[in-house]
Design a protein that fits this description.
The complex is a heterodimer of chains A (about 220) and B (about 180).
Chain A lengths: L11 H4 L8 H5 L27 E11 L21 E5 L6 H18 L5 E12 H6 L10 E5 L8 E6 L7 H15 L3 E3 L12 E3 L6
Antiparallel strand pairs in A: 1-2, 1-3, 2-5, 3-6, 3-7, 4-5
Chain B lengths: L17 H14 L5 H4 L11 H4 L7 H11 L17 H13 L7 E4 L5 E7 L2 E7 L4 E8 L2 E9 L8 H10 L1
Antiparallel strand pairs in B: 1-2, 2-3, 3-4, 4-5
Helix pairs in contact in B: 4-5
The chains are: A alpha+beta (about 220), B alpha+beta (about 180).
Chain lengths: ~220, ~180
């Protein structure tokens, strides 16, 4: 589907859709690598405050952990995979005075939702938070001399005013695997800004876990 | 020991039921391939390495079995398993990952994980490198390798139905150890 001729506000049909189409990042990335609607309203819940360069975006990471195994010590690459598919869902850390509560509420919501979809020998737990400076997102170059590879869009949701999405310009890459490789390299640059849940200074997301509730097939 | 073939013998080793022993030996002779004695002595068991199913019994640890068990567990993940909108692990990707593990000729420790896009990841580390084998359920294997903090796409390789994993996968794994 060609979305390059749509008005930015018309992209709300994709941003606000639930679930979003699997090729969401590709739909928004038209024309490729231009991020033409990044500073526009793209959600019907928009507050009219686009994500600014000096902002910090927070990705709350939920990880399934096998009950028989010790917790993993390293942040897995898959935590950033959504950037090239459905959009990396993040919260704007300094958006307003309620963001801290929004981060905590989001962590509890995500753990609860994950538990619904995991078997009972697996625990869904809040693994931590990855902070991504918007300047790093917008400063990351694309392949073959393209000036940018990632964009950050204001996309508030019901009950989450500080919500935003980070999207990769997937069409700049010749294959899905190349796009994934680029996303993993981007993660290497921001890996140092990952905080395990018990060490995250901005919000209390420590100790949030829930055993899976899904009956085994 | 196969007790069904035990023939009572006297103190001197002679069968107490010569006719029975004769028939047992005849039955064996009819249903087995005759191998000349001199050839039997020269059988080279090192060739067993070429047959993964036999090779499984020669492994020193159960790392591969544990990895296969972990991959099978992913079938119980439903979409939304990461709290966001992760796709459920693709059944074909699970099948491909298990087949890959079964065919590996040497024991390896893998970390098994699901990706929100539905693919299955097998991760191995060593010698300062990290390698992720990505199974998307499309009949190809993607190999991503991190060396000195930089990920490289080692290219997609077709997964065949033969007894071997793609040669490139063996080469990449060999370099880790």
């Amino acid at each position: 589907m060609d979305t390059s001729s749509l008005q930015c506000q018309d992209l709300a049909q994709f941003f606000d859709a639930h679930p979003r189409p699997n090729n969401f990042a590709e739909l928004i990335d038209q024309p490729s690598g231009q991020f033409r609607c990044e500073m526009q309203r793209v959600s019907r819940y928009s507050t009219g405050r686009p994500v600014l360069l000096e902002e910090v975006l927070v990705r709350v990471i939920i990880s399934p952990r096998d009950l028989e195994k010790p917790p993993s010590m390293e942040l897995g690459e898959s935590c950033i995979s959504d950037v090239s598919r459905l959009g990396l869902s993040v919260l704007r850390r300094d958006f307003n005075e309620r963001t801290q509560q929004e981060i905590e509420a989001l962590a509890r919501f995500l753990v609860d939702r994950a538990a619904d979809n995991l078997p009972d020998d697996v625990v869904a737990e809040c693994y931590g938070a990855l902070e991504i400076p918007c300047s790093t997102i917008r400063g990351e170059p694309g392949p073959n001399g393209a000036p940018r590879a990632y964009g950050a869009y204001e996309s508030p949701e019901e009950g989450r005013q500080s919500h935003a999405d980070v999207l990769q310009a997937v069409s700049l890459y010749p294959s899905k695997t190349k796009a994934k490789t680029a996303a993993w390299n981007f993660l290497e640059k921001i890996r140092g800004r990952f905080f395990p849940a018990n060490l995250y200074p901005y919000a209390n997301i420590s100790g949030i876990s829930m055993r899976g509730r899904r009956p085994k097939a | 020991m196969n007790t069904a073939l035990r023939v009572p013998r006297d103190l001197y080793g002679n069968s107490q039921f010569p006719a029975t022993a004769f028939f047992v030996e005849q039955a064996f002779a009819e249903h087995t391939t005759a191998v000349p004695t001199r050839d039997r002595a020269s059988v080279d068991l090192r060739g067993v390495e070429d047959f993964p199913k036999h090779n499984a019994y020669k492994r020193n640890t159960r790392a591969i079995e544990y990895a296969i068990r972990d991959v099978r567990k992913l079938a119980n993940y439903a979409s939304g398993w990461d709290g966001y909108d992760a796709a459920a692990p693709n059944p074909q990707a699970i099948s491909e990952a298990i087949s890959f593990l079964e065919k590996l000729r040497k024991d390896r420790a893998f970390t098994v994980s699901a990706d929100p896009d539905g693919s299955v990841h097998l991760t191995a580390e060593g010698n300062g490198s990290r390698v992720v084998f990505v199974f998307e359920g499309s009949g190809t294997l993607a190999i991503l390798k991190r060396v000195q903090g930089v990920w490289q796409d080692e290219g997609p390789y077709p997964l065949t139905t033969g007894l071997r994993v793609p040669a490139e996968a063996e080469v990449v794994l060999q370099a880790l150890f």
